[in-house]
Write a structure and sequence with these properties.
By secondary structure, the protein is mainly alpha-helical. It has a domain of about 50 residues. The chain is built from three helices and two strands; from the N terminus they run βαααβ. The protein starts with a strand and ends with a strand.
Length: about 100
């Protein structure tokens, strides 16, 4: 199966649906996700287009992206797996979030 591309708005809708279906959640995980999102956005704003980071910083960012992507894909897969039937199954490993 080829790559599946969804927009940020579609991703937000999926996340909203999952949240509505599962009101109970992990308080600590929500706090940690908020911190990650806030700090990442702040650094994104501060970072100039042509600015370079030290190698260890780029490595940590790449590792963080892989970790978050794995968690989100697993979370989404667990929720979507029950809804998918027949030959219309989606391989979430092929999911591309963004453009």
């Amino acid at each position: 199966m080829g790559k599946i591309i969804i927009t940020e708005k579609q991703l937000e809708n999926v996340i909203r649906t999952i949240k509505e279906e599962h009101k109970e959640g992990s308080y600590m995980a929500k706090q940690q996700l908020f911190t990650i999102a806030t700090l990442a956005y702040k650094m994104w704003e501060m970072l100039e287009d042509e600015e370079t980071l030290e190698d260890w910083m780029e490595t940590k960012i790449a590792q963080s992206e892989q970790s978050i992507s794995s968690v989100v894909k697993s979370f989404m897969y667990d929720e979507a797996e029950e809804r998918m039937k027949g030959n219309n199954q989606i391989d979430l490993d092929d999911l591309v979030i963004g453009k």
